[in-house]
Amino acid sequence: MSDFTYVENVAHANICAEQALSSNAASVAGKPFFVTNDEPMETWEFMNCMMEAMGCQRPRINLPAKMLLFAALFSKMIHHRLGFQMLSTPLLHPDTIYFLSCTRTFNTSRARRLLGYHPIVSLEDGIMRTLGSFSELADNLGLSRKQGSCGSSKADKLLGSGTAADILLWRDEKRTFSFVTVLFLLFYWFLLSDRTFVSSAAKFLLVLSLALFIHGVLPSEVFGFTVEKVTSDHFEVSHSALRNSLMCVASAWNGSFHKLRLLAEGEDWSLLLKVFAFLYSIKLMLNFQFRFLMGLVLASLFIVFIVYEQCEEEIDSLVANASVKVKWLTDRVVRNLPAFLKAYIA
Predict the structure, then answer these.
(1) Contact status, residue 148 vs residue 70, Cβ threshold 8 Å
(2) Residue 106 near residue 82, CB atoms below 8 Å
(3) Which PROSITE patterns match (predicted)?
(4) What is the rounded distance in angstroms from the CA atom of residue 187 to the CA atom of residue 181?
């Protein structure tokens, strides 16, 4: 819980103090007084109220403070180990997490009794007045994330601003939860069960066929609930979708051969390093079990994009700082190379 104070209440408290000093200085002179709105509330709830008033969405993911504190300590350690302290401050700082999660409430009874103070502006009115004075705040800071109000986020554009974006960004929580449930069941059916993949696929097709048959037999209304029939359009692939898929495959194939041709010319060192890094990452992934990798990928799909959308500016800033650091290290390594290697790389 935390106490907040609107600035007009602070000014009112100063006026009350001046009047009390004029009328009864002996009882108030030299004494400390706490002045707040006397409306303690959770810090996160206050932030949510501010965000909603600015037209932003409430955060959909709530993490425990202890988990964030551990992440902040880890972030601070990595920040110092990599030498980023000269470039920027850590994305998360333990002091910030502690300050936001601890209880900070104050007793204003002395100010009420001796100064005659009482809040003249409520916390809700104070929030609205603050945002009314800075109506352009959301636009200037780029905090608005509502789709259609200030444009799509980078995560939304990356996912194509379509159905996939709505699902992975949790726009429709019920729909996303349905997809998560189905994917988890498929993951368990094919990878976590003791059956072989062929056996699992055969049983899955059998269950699916039986479910479709039962669904087709059901009447249009059962116990007052409407049963939507599955039309043949759900099982058809349009010519445009098929053509686009084939074009994507052909484009990927041609792009791969183009990169191989560039490698064969032996001039593009950056491409060689990228290919080496890609193949080495594939080698590392093959050291893990396939079921572990698939589980990690499925979990990441529904976490990474929503986290990036919520912390877009912070992540972009961190990536930019990391890029500066990598470039600095690269230049330093190149400067220490022999002259003939520098000429060959150049």
Answers:
(1) no
(2) no
(3) RETICULON
(4) 10
Alpha helices of 54-189 — where are they, by DSSP H? Answer: 65-81, 94-101, 109-110, 123-133, 137-141, 154-158, 163-168, 173-187
Is the CB of residue 91 less than 8 Å from the CB of residue 75? yes
Tokens describing residue 14: 């100063």
Residue 92 near residue 63, CB atoms below 8 Å: no
What is the rounded CA–CA span in Å between residue 170 and residue 332? Answer: 44
Burial 25-36 (b: 16+ CB within 10 A, else e): eeebeeeebbbb
- pLDDT recorded at residue 89: 61
The 10s digit of each residue's pLDDT in 124-149 is: 888 888 877 766 554 555 444 444 44
Give yes or no for a contact between 123 and 39, defined as CB atoms under 8 angstroms apart.
yes
Rg (CA), the chain: 30
* Residues 92 and 68 sit within 8 Å (Cβ to Cβ): yes
Are 28 and 17 within 8 A, CB to CB? yes
In angstroms, the Cα distances linking 187 to 150, 182, 192, 193, 194 are 37, 9, 7, 9, 12
AA letter at 242: L
Q: What are the CB-based long-range contacts (under 8 Å, 24+) for 147-155?
A: 147/171, 149/55, 153/309, 153/312, 154/308, 154/309, 154/312, 154/316, 155/305, 155/306, 155/308, 155/309, 155/312
Which contiguous run of DSSP H or E holds residue 250?
A: helix 239-265
For the stretch 162-221, pLDDT in tens is: 777 888 887 777 788 888 888 888 888 887 777 888 888 888 889 888 888 888 888 877
In whole angstroms, what is the distance from residue 331 CA to residue 320 CA? 17
**Separation CA 208–CA 191 (nearest Å):** 18
At 317 the three-state DSSP class reads: helix
The CA dihedral of 287, 291, 294, 298, to the nearest 10 degrees, is -140
Measured on CA atoms in the order 15, 19, 20, 26, is the torsion positive or negative?
A: positive
Amino acid, res. 236: E
Identity of the residue numbered 133: S
